[in-house]
């Protein structure tokens, strides 16, 4: 397997198209791309061949070993070539019906395109519009079971305006789902982490509808959340978007094995006038939510730490140095440490030791914990290495 | 990062690494317990039953199955499985070639085209199936593990499964080697038998040539001796008659007759000629036997019922056996077709039964003749309740001119001629057993399938 990462700027449309049509990209088994909304939109106009693409808009821009672009329209493309296996890509518009059923049909199509119908992929890489991630995962797991690692992220825009886009090489979606079923001969290792600390503060979800929590322990959810923040020395939040204010205090559900549970985070995005609390993930009535606590320096060091863990795990397991690294970093976390991105970039470069890498900033992350089951969370970080 | 945060992060990292290490632990357990299973098992079925128990304890699964590629039939056939669920019929190799090429982890068999008409027959309850090819020096196999839920086998499970495949391959190779060793031993034994047979045949051929030469050279002198003795017998009878009549004509002649003891001389002369003629006849019989020994193939062969030949031969020997021995003939077969000459086969039966009659005690002797068949041979066992053949002479009984009978009672050619006849028809004549309770000879001839 060969992995190359390119950084292509949207300064001149013709030059952008020329650079996209270089050999690496054209002959790739799969191109994974991230950039801001404009870059991905331009990408969809420029791509004319039948190469497999799985591209998504990323909050403000994207990062790779070639640099970080926030606010400038650059697309960072990771091209996987000579995978000695098969990769099938399929997509759908999830506003066209039941998201679970559509996701099930889409993964089947992806497997068909890889000519491996019925076979367990070594990795399912997924990008989707935010909103129905749990239903999408459920659809894929209905077809493949819970053992297949599903990694990816939810598309992002710059200001949570719903402008995010997804691209499969042919169609540009605003509410789309693109799935790559990857059957690679060479090994793949993944790591999924939150990096936040659990507090002793907990409450049970007593009224919920989708991603809107009405009550926690039978009290208004917004009131309970504000009370918790005050306990930790923060002022109460006012109704409206609370995304950046809640970044260091997300809500966690403990998943994985009982002896060693791992927090799956949900990011409170909005406090409504009726004191209900909106999240970027779906919770269920009866779920126990734990107040999680994060620190800025922790968010800064996480990317390098997960890079170190995934490389060590891969080398321990397969006794080989991987050929490429893919990081999915929560867009909310990125916004909270935006002024420290150069430090983050340098720390990843140091750990990657020359390995090409690509980092996306997403509004939701999908990955699997050591128990093997893939889940959707917020404020999470995932690392995937190939080869 | 606080100490607590660092601790949480470390625990999470360690849990990932622990998952990888548990893979190695599982492989080690499989090796260790698999080895125990092999060491304490005695046969193929037991080894795989124990091995499958070990595998299913460490790698949870519903069914384990190993199937072999039958190159000649171009099919794939299950050779062992954990549970007797599902069919075990052969499947076409051309439909399964993909599985003999690389590991296939089927997370949802319902999506696989034609699954139910192929491996689904073997694994009707399976939803997930993990298949790995195993190649040994002798054959190609696939081994399959199945579960009745979708997506049961993770990548980590697959890695353990594939790592353990080398151990399973080695186990299969061991069985192939054992089988090869046993085949090799059988072939070596067959080669030794053929070599012994060739030496015997060469010896027999040399003896046959000698016998043919001797028979030919003796035949003419014996012919005129026989002719002369017959004439002499006639002449002596006439001389005796004349002498006795002439001696009674006068008292002087009678006196001379007595004083010359001519009465004794004439009587003895007739007896001497008679004895010479008897000896002549025995010599002629020996010559005939020598001819039969040296030219056992001078007869026409055809498909015939061996049972009818035995019955015919027994009618002849029963006359000889009367009041000495009881002869029983027993078979469940309606017929037993062999390709041979009827007279020669009858001669073999008569030879062996005659020997048996001479070996048993008068009055309490019993001879049992039983005929059975397997897929390729007719086997006739002739068993007596005599005192057995002395161990010292057992190795020589098929040698020409070897006999334990008194001089004049046997030529020592009966068993050697019999063996030559049976071997001529690609059969075997063996001393199957002998001891104080009796002796058993086995005649084995190729069965002709009339259908």
From TrEMBL, chain A:
Residues 27-220 form the FIST domain. InterPro entries: FIST_C, FIST_domain_N. Pfam families: FIST (PF08495), FIST_C (PF10442). Residues 221-369 form the FIST C-domain domain. This is Uncharacterized conserved protein, contains FIST_N domain. It comes from Marisediminitalea aggregata.
TrEMBL record, chain B:
SMART domains: HATPase_c, HisKA. It is an enzyme of class 2 (transferase). It catalyses: ATP + protein L-histidine = ADP + protein N-phospho-L-histidine. Residues 213-449 form the Histidine kinase domain. It comes from the Bacteria. Pfam families: HATPase_c. GO terms for molecular function: phosphorelay sensor kinase activity. PROSITE patterns: HIS_KIN (PS50109). Keywords: Kinase, Phosphoprotein, Transferase. Its EC number is 2.7.13.3. CDD domains: HisKA. PANTHER family: SENSOR HISTIDINE KINASE, TWO-COMPONENT SENSOR PPRA. This is histidine kinase. It comes from Marisediminitalea aggregata.
């Amino acid at each position: 397997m060969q992995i190359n990462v390119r950084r292509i700027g949207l300064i001149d449309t013709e030059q952008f198209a020329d650079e996209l049509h270089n050999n690496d990209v054209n002959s790739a088994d799969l191109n994974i791309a991230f950039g801001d909304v404009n870059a991905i939109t331009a990408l969809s106009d420029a791509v004319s061949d039948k190469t497999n693409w799985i591209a998504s808009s990323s909050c403000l821009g994207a990062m790779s070993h070639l640099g970080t672009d926030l606010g400038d329209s650059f697309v960072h493309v990771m091209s996987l070539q000579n995978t000695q296996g098969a990769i099938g890509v399929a997509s759908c518009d999830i506003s066209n019906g039941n998201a679970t059923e559509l996701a099930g049909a889409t993964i089947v199509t992806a497997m068909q395109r890889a000519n491996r119908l019925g076979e367990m992929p070594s990795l399912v890489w997924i990008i989707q519009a935010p909103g129905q991630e749990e239903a999408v995962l459920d659809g894929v797991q209905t077809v493949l079971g819970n053992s297949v690692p599903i990694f990816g992220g939810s598309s992002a825009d710059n200001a949570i305006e719903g402008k995010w886009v997804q691209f499969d090489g042919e169609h540009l979606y605003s509410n789309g789902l693109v799935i790559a079923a990857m059957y690679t001969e060479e090994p793949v290792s993944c790591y999924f982490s939150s990096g936040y600390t659990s507090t002793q503060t907990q409450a049970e979800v007593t009224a919920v509808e989708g991603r809107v929590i009405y009550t926690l322990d039978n009290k208004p959810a917004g009131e309970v959340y504000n009370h918790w923040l005050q306990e930790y020395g923060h002022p109460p939040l006012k109704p409206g978007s609370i995304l950046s204010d809640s970044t260091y205090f997300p809500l966690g559900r403990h998943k994985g094995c009982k002896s060693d549970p791992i927090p799956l985070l949900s990011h409170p995005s909005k406090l409504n006038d009726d004191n209900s609390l909106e999240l970027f993930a779906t919770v269920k009535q009866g779920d126990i939510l734990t107040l999680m606590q994060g620190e800025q320096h922790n968010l800064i060091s996480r990317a390098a730490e997960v890079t170190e863990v995934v490389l060590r795990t891969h080398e321990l397991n397969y006794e080989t140095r991987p050929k490429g690294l893919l990081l999915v970093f929560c867009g909310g976390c990125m916004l909270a440490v935006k002024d420290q991105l150069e430090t983050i970039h340098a720390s990843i470069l140091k750990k990657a030791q020359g390995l090409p890498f690509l980092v996306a900033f997403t509004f939701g992350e999908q990955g699997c914990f050591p128990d093997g089951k893939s889940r959707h969370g917020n404020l999470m970080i995932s690392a995937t290495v190939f080869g | 990062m606080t100490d607590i945060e660092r601790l949480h992060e470390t625990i999470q990292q360690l849990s990932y690494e622990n998952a990888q290490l548990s893979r190695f632990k599982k492989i080690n357990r499989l090796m260790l317990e698999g080895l125990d299973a092999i060491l304490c098992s005695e046969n193929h079925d037991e080894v795989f039953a124990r091995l499958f128990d070990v595998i299913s304890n460490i790698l949870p699964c519903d069914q384990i199955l190993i199937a072999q590629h039958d190159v000649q039939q171009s099919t794939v056939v299950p050779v062992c499985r954990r549970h007797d669920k599902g069919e075990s019929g052969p499947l076409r190799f051309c439909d399964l070639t993909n599985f003999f090429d690389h590991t296939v982890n089927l997370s949802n068999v319902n999506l696989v085209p034609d699954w139910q008409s192929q491996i689904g027959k073997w694994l009707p309850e399976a939803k997930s199936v993990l298949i790995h090819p195993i190649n040994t020096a002798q054959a190609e196999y696939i081994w399959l593990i199945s579960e009745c839920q979708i997506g049961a086998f993770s990548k980590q499970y697959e890695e353990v499964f594939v790592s353990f495949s080398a151990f399973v391959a080695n186990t299969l190779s061991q069985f192939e080697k054992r089988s090869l060793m046993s085949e090799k031993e059988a072939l070596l034994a067959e080669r030794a038998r053929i070599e012994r047979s060739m030496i015997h045949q060469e010896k027999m051929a040399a003896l046959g040539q000698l016998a043919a030469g001797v028979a030919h050279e003796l035949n003419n002198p014996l012919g005129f001796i026989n002719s002369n003795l017959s004439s002499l017998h006639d002449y002596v009878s006439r001389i005796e008659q004349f002498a006795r009549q002439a001696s009674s004509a006068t008292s002087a002649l009678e006196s001379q007759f007595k004083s010359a003891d001519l009465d004794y001389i004439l009587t003895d002369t007739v007896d001497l000629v008679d004895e010479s003629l008897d000896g002549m006849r025995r010599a002629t019989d020996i010559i005939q036997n020598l001819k039969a020994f040296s030219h056992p193939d001078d007869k026409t062969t055809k498909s015939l019922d061996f049972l009818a030949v035995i019955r015919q031969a027994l009618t002849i020997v029963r006359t000889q056996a009367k009041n000495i021995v009881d002869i029983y003939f027993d078979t469940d077969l309606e017929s037993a077709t062999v390709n041979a000459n009827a007279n020669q086969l009858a001669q073999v039966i008569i030879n062996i039964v005659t020997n048996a009659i001479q070996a048993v005690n008068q009055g309490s002797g019993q001879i049992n003749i039983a005929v059975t068949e397997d897929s390729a041979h007719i086997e006739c066992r002739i068993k007596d309740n005599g005192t057995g053949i002395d161990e010292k002479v057992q190795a020589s009984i098929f040698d020409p001119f070897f006999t334990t009978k008194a001089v004049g009672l046997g030529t020592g050619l009966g068993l050697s001629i019999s063996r030559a006849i049976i071997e001529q028809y690609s059969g075997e004549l063996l001393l199957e057993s002998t001891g104080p309770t009796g002796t058993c000879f086995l005649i084995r001839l190729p069965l002709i399938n009339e259908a």
